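anyone else get weird line breaks when pasting these?? whatever heres mine. first is seq + tokens for prot A
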Amino acid sequence: MDGQPMTSMAAMRSFRRDPSVTARQLPKGTVRRILGIARPYRRELSFFLALVVGSSIIGVITPLLAGDIVNRIARLEGTTGGIVRIALVIAALAVVDAGISLGTRWFSARIGEGVIYDLRSRVFEHVQQMPVAFFTRTQTGALVSRLNNDVVGAQQAFTSTLSGVVSNVIGLVLTAGVMFTLSWQITLLSLVLVPLFVLPARRIGSRLQEITRESYSLNASMNATMTERFNVAGALLVKLFGRPAVEADSFRGRAARVRDIGVLSAMYGRTFFVALTLVAALATALVYGLGGWLAFTGDLSPGDVVALALLLSRLYGPLTALANVRVDVMSAMVSFDRVFEVLDLPPMIREAPDAVAVPAGDRSIEFDSVSFSYPAGSDVSLPSLEEVSLPEHGGPVDVLHEISFRVAPGQLVALVGHSGAGKSTIAHLVPRLYDVTGGAVRVGGVDVRRATFASLQDAIGVVSQDSHLFHDTMRANLLYARPDATDEQVWDALTGARIADLVRALPEGLDTVVGDRGYRLSGGEKQRLAIARVLLKAPGIVILDEATAHLDSESEAAVQHALDTALAGRTSLVIAHRLSTIRSADQILVVDDGRIVESGTHEELLTRGGRYADLYRTQFAEKEQDRIVVG
């Protein structure tokens, strides 16, 4: 039956989709925004729809021509030349229809892939503008799903859904109209058989939706398991705690259920196709039986019987597909809505319209009565992107209170205090990873909220306690900070970071792949490569966020030497866990509960005998105890 397999597959997808999407309330203006997405492709859409209409018309004309040939043969009317000419017309129409099919596929691909490109580009660019708070709450997998599954689902609105609805409606109207003109009795009886298929198919569809939903959930769970266990940290945890057998059993259990669902789904699908084929076969038998009887009584010609049988194959497919078209349309619109949901989330941190560049000659840092509270989740993220939606750091509770200090150009100021005191939060405010809720942070005399992003990024370099490296070569990771750097500049940075000899000794040199998150390197090597990246960037301000906190003594010494080079002549804000590393700081700020409770040099603070002295004595006692134990 011409066209039957394709329409059957489309109908199958419709019944598989969850009709609960039709109950979802879409925001006003969604359709208008979708049309806005389609506007750049309106010319292609016009050609696409015209070709779909043309294909539908050819699909109705061909059976009529075939019936005309049968009539001529049965009545021995006309000439053989006339029959041959009609046959050639049918062949020509088949060639034209094949060309139309290629044309519709080309326009469909061009429109669909164009929409995917536009939406993915917009979402990717928009997500990059989001603040750090967005990424601390959002599940990466959920966000990636918006860029993949939902964008593709939205794209289908312009290809399979749109073309399916248009071709099915036109094909159904033309086919039913022609069939009624040939024999209204046969057409009505054929339509009576439709409920015999559609009603059971809906029952099958309901069950298919349930098992498909379960399959999606299990696949998502398996993907999450693989993502967590297959990265270096997860694999190490499994190996160190010796639970590979438990992990394998758990995975096999879910995989087995997916396997069983696959078998069940295949049988339901086959039942669907068998039912459609059976009903179509019964209807065809009806056409030939009743049509043959009408032909013998003279109420219908033999050619009309053949035309009706051929047209019947183009009747059930569109009827079945259109029975669930609302779910198809709403599924596509919901995908658009989920994409728009991300695009509509405004970045909390934006560049001011009148932003100015940070002065090149002034690299001072100033905190002026700064207060800060972490934003509420509703301000920075979406519940649909979080598996568990909780307020970040307690929500809108102040974590910094009236912080004031100044770091003059070229000075080194250290922040010390217990974990959770607010040191890292202070450091995050300088490169404007967050915005203050009170007071002001100034770099080079410019409030960071009025500074251009580019000048602020150029002015500041950061080395954290767990510096991130991309799964790429050493060269690529270094050039990320300065793409136009020469090899000489790269090696100078590596030399300054005390890691050049190690890189030269590697077989691949700078082209050595560092592995996922840099796990092919030791902690000290990874930190020194991160320091080399900062040296290559050559910023005027360097922020160190406990850059040596988790290193052994030997690695710490190597990294500390590299840091001395990185900090030379630069304005530095250093968060220190080991107080021995910041004895020479120009100023030490003791932070406690979001407040600066002491400030001064190392000697001054020790003389005062306050909080810093207590911290120093505690660390010195711990170090002495460790020395005695080792000895």
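and prot B, same format (seq, then tokens)
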Amino acid sequence: MDTGTDKAGWSGAGWARLAIGLIQGVVLYGLHQAMQAKAWPATEPALFEALVCAWAFTPIVLLGGLGDMRRVTLAVWAVVATALSVVMAMHYVLREGTGTGVQYPHGGAGLFAAAVIFIGHHLVQGADTARRPIAPYPVYFDAAWKHGVQLALAGAFTGVFWLVLLLGAALFKLIGLDFLEKLIREEWFAVPGTTVAFAAAVHLTDVKAGVIRGVRTVALTLLSWLMPLMGLIAVGFLAALPFTGLKLLWATGHAAALVLAAAAVLIILLNAAYQDGEDAKTPTVLKWAGRVTALAVAPLVAIAAYGVWLRVGQYGLTPERVIASACALVGACYAVGYAIAALKPGAWLKPLEATNVATAFVAIGVLIALFTPLADPARIAVADQVRRLEAGKIAPDKFDFGFLRFDGAKWGRAELERLKAHATGPNAKVISEKAAEALKLEYRYQRDEQRPRFDAARITVWPKGRTLPESFVKQAWDAGDGWSPCIQGGDRSCDAFFADLDADGTEEVLLSPGYQLNVYRLTDGRWKKAGDLNAGGCSGVLEALKAGQFKATEPKWKDLEVNGQHLRLQADGCEPMPEVKTAK
């Protein structure tokens, strides 16, 4: 067992790590200064993005690989990791094309490049340690969780490092000395200081391997005992679905993402319980809970995939649905493997090991495809939406040309140019006109604000049997009538209620997209938005509204009149309601 003694000190790897941290900080400071001065390379957004990503991630690869990989392997992997981050970063900028106002978008591809590099690093390190392409599972487990804990501790150390400096600056300032305060405000100190502190923390945690192992053990133990709870929640959710149906699930508009997130949490907690696969150290209760939980992953992923498939069938692909489909694909790999692991007799969840390794390769492939030209979500979504438009599956007045202009990257704008000049299909002339109009837009919702769209088929009216006023449905909406997701269009389902909030004898229409009530009142023969009733965070509001359990009441707080204007209190939280009565 590691005694926690210093295995390297500050010679060799220690000084190398400090040097890497210092060089990284100096280069990042230089890039920041170039951005501030709008000088080269910041004048070339694609190059600038690539440099920022490369210098953000490659040094961390070197910090983590020193002492854990052979030098040749680490050098080759560092080159590959740099190339991946550069390609993904440059694509993030170049996909927008020219003339879009993109300036200094550094960080846009960072999260996904970091995921690819983290997964790839441990596949490479495992292979290097085992001296074979696919290492034994405990090697992957040990490396991935060790570096995960190291990164967390190094981040915490860096944060405390700055808290200590701030405290020191405050102490010196008490006696009239502000040199430390001025120093830490200087960017030439702050950027390299941060990277050096992070590098030092990585080395210190690497030297004290016993500390890392202890923290990891505690973290995994705590997480593993959350697995039965999350498994119980998942099983209870699945058991309730036959009685509640899926309609309520789809009405939220984000069910697929939430269900996939639940499946991801199950996978993480299962792995925390499984650890390196040493069957003997796993309590019996966790083994039984683990088999049940592993089986629950499959139906959750299936529900999410079905939800995405329904949306795609109804409304076509969007970049978000392409990404959701990719997540469902990765989730399906886990789901199949974990179901086999749960049902297979013998060593507890043994097939989980092969599933995790194989899915890691799948995840890397999917991420690289999504964030390179291979399968860019915008390119795929644009092609699908334009195909639907020209095939007549969606009417031109229902089609979101603004999506092509602002969310379809360079492919969307190219399609607008093509549609403007060479639209095909039964509505070619109208499509051409709307494409030309969209190309003139300066910002995303400009046209929506000018010419809102209303689709009564998306609105469920309460109480049952009532309908929206004919004047409301047939009104030609414009920007001056006020914005609501229920008016502007899209695929969001909304609910409508009625209440006379201004006591003038005419009921207002209350539209709910799910998180608030948009209030519309009839003024001079025209429906206009009066304001919003915010219900975010208040439980049971929508259900009570649907049941008719509401009434108009006098406000609890008076307005404050200032200079002839009324300032109205926005309540912090949900105030207790008076006894509810059914509205008549």
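btw re prot B: The CA atoms of residues 201 and 277 lie 30 Å apart. The radius of gyration is 29 Å.
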